Amino acid sequence: MNDLNRRSAARTRNAVPDDVSGVLETLAAGFSLVVARPYLFVLPLMIDLWAWLGVQIYPAAVIEPLQDLMIDQGGRNGTAAAEELGRVGESLRVNDLIASLTPSIFSGLPNDTLLGSMLGVLVPALTGGVDRADMYDEWGQGLGQNVNPDHWSSVLGIGALLFLAATVLVVLFKVPLAQAVRGGGMTAGSLLKDIAFGWVRVVGLLGIVLAGILVLGMPAIITAQILTLVGINLIAVLSLALFVFGSIGALYTFFLLDAMFIYRVGPIRAAKMSYAVARINFAQSWRFAAASLLIATGLLQVWNVIVENPPGIVVALLANAVLGTGLSIASMMFFHDRARLPRPLQPSRSLPSPRRS
Hints:
The chain is mostly helical. Helices cover 69% and strands 1% of the residues. It is built from 14 helices and two strands; from the N terminus they run αααβααααβααααααα. It has a two-stranded parallel ribbon with strand order 1-2. α2 packs across α14 (310-339), α4 packs antiparallel against α5 (78-91) and α8 crosses α14 (310-339).
């Protein structure tokens, strides 16, 4: 009987309180907040307008050498693969990299979570942005100058600079969202401080991810290639393992950026916080992540259809900025509500409260 009472008490302590919203309620609250504070979606809208109406940079200098390599080294399917790569390359713009971390109809699903990035690799047709060739008349070409760099190094260099700009823009986007979710006032000085330190943390996170790929990924690939030379093919096994463990890791780190901006912590501490919330609220976290990605990818397919007429382009740009911002806010709300819950089993390791500026 004592055992039963202890288990019942533990379940009661770890139950989600009634004042913590569920998945659908949190999503609705995120959309409501962005409608109440429209300034929150201005930045992603401006980024999309720049990516569309600004200078259009084509990646042909990278695509064409890859096509030649496929034709020379790809065997009987090399030519078909090269042709498919060429079709994909025609829809790509290097300037879309600037919108890669924020809600965008051109860059597609934001790569601000590991789960989103994995989905982009596995099903690019579902997560990619609007194909400009489908836009009304010549509007798909935008209004800016078309640039086609002559050398692949120029394309990569420009892409790196634009992605660096994207890291700044995601900070400018996330900091006001985090402040809106936390509540309370914010001075100009504290805002600038959050932006500066937020960018340092984002760059630190990218550095950790890159180091992890080099330290863990490259040796595994090299080992698999060496074993292939002696007749042992582990590529399929490694791909399956990467998918399984990557999916689990993607869920546990789904709220990593949310933790970084709401609680103003570094990437390692944020990863621990995201893991703690996702582990304790595993089922709800999966439902929230799945619902968010389903909404985001579904909207991209809708935008790809309605941009075939001029009013549809305007609707797509505005609605995507509003709804994409709402999803980002809802993610912060979902995490923040659960991060503040008491942890009776580990009181000394409870998650920190947001530091007031």
